[in-house]
Each structure stands twice: as structure tokens, then as C-alpha cells.
Design goal:
mainly alpha; 62% helix
Length: 76
């Protein structure tokens, strides 16, 4: 699994992530699709979707693009 670099940790202050949520988010950020994320993490596809839904809800976002914008410090 790809390790998160210090830049990722610095920006992640803008959003709230659990450890597993962070794995899902950063894989998504790197262009990995949900089925591949499930396979890499050893979890089901529906579990990946639930992680994403929770990440969006906790960070008051409605889309992954909005969350990515918030992660990079841009207001939408």
C-alpha cells in the first residue's frame, strides 16, 4: 500500500478522516476506483461506499469533488 507523504498529512487538517477513511480517501484522490479500493483494502465494495458516505457527511460535503476541494483548502 502506498504510504501517505507529509504533504497529505498537512492538507488533511482541512478535513476529518478516520484511519480507514483516510486510506479510502487517498486512494480515491490517486484515481483508484471503488472496486479496486475494496480489493486493495480487503473489504467489500459496499464498505468502501459506506466509508465515502461517512467521510462526506462528517465533512459537510455532498460530493467527492467538494471534499477534494476542501482538502486542498479551496472553498466551493
Amino acid at each position: 500500500m502506498q504510504m501517505l507523504n507529509s504533504h497529505d498529512h498537512e492538507n488533511s487538517k482541512n478535513i476529518k478522516l478516520t484511519p480507514r477513511g483516510a486510506e479510502v480517501f487517498f486512494l480515491t484522490l490517486n484515481g483508484v476506483d471503488d472496486k479496486s479500493i475494496a480489493s486493495k483494502m480487503g473489504i467489500s465494495y459496499s464498505c468502501v461506499r459506506r466509508h465515502k458516505e461517512k467521510i462526506l457527511m462528517v465533512n459537510n460535503c455532498t460530493t467527492i469533488l467538494e471534499l477534494i476541494s476542501k482538502y486542498h483548502g479551496n472553498a466551493m
